[in-house]
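Supplementary Methods, section 5.1.

A reviewer requested that the exact input to the structure prediction be made available. We therefore reproduce it here, unchanged from the version used in the analyses.
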Amino acid sequence: MALINENFLKLPESYLFSDIKKKVEAFKHLHPDANIISLGIGDVTRPIAPVVIEALHAAVDEMGDSKTFRGYGPEQGYDFLQKKIIENDYIHRGVDLAPDEIFISDGAKSDIGNIGDILSMQNRVAVTDPVYPVYIDTNVMGGRAGNIAKDGQHWDNIIYIPCTSENNFIPELPSVRPDIIYLCYPNNPTGTTLSKNELEKWVNYALENETLILFDSAYEAYIHDEGIPHSIYEIKDAKRVAIEFRSFSKTAGFTGLRCGYTVVPKELKLYDTSKKKVNINRLWNRRQTTKFNGTSYIVQRAAEAIYSPVGKIQIQESIDYYMRNARLLKDCLQKAGLQIYGGDNAPYIWVKTPNELSSWKFFDRLLCECHIVGTPGVGFGPSGEGYFRLTAFGRYEDTIESISRIQNWKL
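The structure derived from this sequence is encoded token-by-token as follows.
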């Protein structure tokens, strides 16, 4: 008889954003006239940049002409996009990469979930806490998380590294050695960042302990402060220990188009069970050519367009738009007497809930009294309890309306 992967049965039946959706729908049913503003799920709201639309149209026309039609493309991505990524995202930061170290995908989330295919189930995983749920859930699916504790929050084979206001959201190096460490900076959900010196500590730790760093830099385009690295490869020898994931979703509004990329340096090698070092770039390439047929040509041409001179201007306009929302939200919430973190180099505002309210209690009050939806911090992990996430990806007009409601809110 056919058997299932029982690790899937260990996952909680509910998913954070599914729970939020259910609560909002129940509220709408009781209050059908309520104008609910969502500052919860981090989806973009601005339309795709004109230069990208033009590139999409041009690529569609190519597909309709027998002379320029393209069928199956390279699973790793077209070299025209790989080269643009290297030229624009890495060279000026002192990072030297080859095109075959760049793997174009349908988004960072997919690759973050799929990278486990080439990693042993025996690996011990560490995550900063709070954390993007995909890091935990995919390791549960892959059999690396162990079993969930009675508190319903901790997995017994996951090493949790708390990031709270008490340590200024700077994770401490783990006392128990992990095999794999997930780092996300600028951070989702807290909106906080690591300085170059702090990130260097992690790279050195990984080098000394032969640990793999999975570095999610999906929000690097929102960094504007000097001294904050955009890529982990700005740190010396990081290519020996790190895989970097990037996305065009939040940078260029590709949440619906789906495109991102993963950097797997050839210098990165891990051990097999016989203690022989194996080239990870080769393994990931093998995985992709077996399980993935590549991101569509049309979408890759669209991604290429964001690196044009006009594209850079238009993309920066959208980033500035969202960061204006972030500044307005942060200023309003601080004036309301709340403790606020993030929002300076990331489009997320991390709120300390007042009066010792739980994350879900604060969610309920904000929804019922202000008709605003956010994300309870506890949904991102145990250390998220007592915090709350708001995103700056909403429409400017909705942000202004939200601020008006919060200003008149009696906390």
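The mean pLDDT is 95. These observations are discussed further in the main text.
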